[in-house]
Design goal:
By secondary structure, this protein is α+β, with helices and mostly antiparallel strands. It is built from three helices and five strands. The chain is globular, with a radius of gyration of 14 Å. The mean pLDDT is 87.
């Protein structure tokens, strides 16, 4: 697992969202990479990784958290929209909230890959 700085993840998240927003793609795959800590068995780092066709690197980290998928979504959305009130990933209303705020639908989630589709207004 390659570590990236918060600044890099923020830039990557904005580029990822901009690519969807500008119509570069309507759907995108986000790979969920999990890794246990080597020093603390209670800590599990999770990264959201995606591909950019206009990036020098084929795979880029758009979010990272020790708070699982929920923490990755919090970081991703904060990096895209700034400091806004968020709904937790495990809340029943998360998908409708994500559609309203980010215009993205989760169309596939098998625990390894999340497919998101950008919904035009």
């Amino acid at each position: 697992m390659n570590r990236t700085t918060l600044k890099e993840r923020k830039e990557n998240a904005k580029a990822f969202y901009q690519y969807l927003w500008n119509g570069g793609a309507q759907m995108a795959a986000i790979v969920i990479l999990r890794q246990d800590s080597k020093t603390n068995p209670n800590i599990h780092r999770v990264q959201f990784i995606t591909s950019h066709t206009n990036s020098p690197s084929s795979n880029v980290v758009i979010a990272e958290s020790v708070d699982g998928i929920s923490g990755c979504f919090r970081e991703l959305i904060s990096n895209i929209h700034g400091d806004i009130p968020q709904i937790n990933y495990f809340d029943d209303k998360f998908r409708s909230w994500l559609r309203k705020i980010c215009h993205m639908d989760i169309v596939w989630n098998d625990g390894l890959v999340i497919m998101v589709e950008y919904k035009r207004k």
